[in-house]
Protein: Relaxase
Amino acid sequence: MIAKTTIGSSFLGAINYGAGYSLDGKEIEGKSELLLLHNVVSLDPLGIAMEMQQEAAGSRCKRPVWHSSLNWKPGENPTKEQMIEAANLYCSKMGADPKDHQIAVYQHHDKPHKHIHIYINRVPTDGSKALETSHNYARNVRICKEITQELNFALVEKLQEGKLRHVAENQKEAQKIVNLAIKSALKQKCNSLEDLELLLKEKGIQCKFKVEEGKLKYTSYSYRGIPIKGQDVGFTAKQLQSKFEASLFAKRQSYLKTLY
Structure:
């Protein structure tokens, strides 16, 4: 089992995604199932989001939305009860005691592997300090290992560069095309996002990159109208960032050598 966390400000947008609603506000039938609620009375997405927003309104916390996805290894089939237990353990180990925080958990059915989405109001109901967000990546790794051992789940291997994940049938062609295009671009000593985007556009691939504080945080692509995430084509944002930094360092070292 592995986890991925994002922090945000809009409960409505987050909960709507969890509940399986598209951007135009329509429910995608069969995509999502509500598994768990803590300290929330409403059952509908709007009601859940409004309750959480109201609880956070009296706090100085500007980004009260904690969203984590828990993902099991392809082929592993935890029961609903096991997924609920994992969600409760995850929240507690992260410091969000289910007795003191509003929590909503949804299971999504849109991927080949089992996965759930956990939404936590960082602002606790007792008015104490908001849930800490520092070192989320390291904490996710440690906590997932603990839960995996405690509940006897399978370990999920770290995604290797260039390795393809399981995707929907209609995404397989796009996945392969983008994967090969990125490999080709990197072989051409692609040194930046701008270079990569230019080379991929020449092959009919549209790119979407999210950069925060000079670091590449998210990548996605589209080929012939089929969208696909960067991690699903074998190159995570972190891996690409490392490659660009290494390339830039090598370029600087080569330049410095010409000065002496």
Observations:
- The radius of gyration is 20 Å.
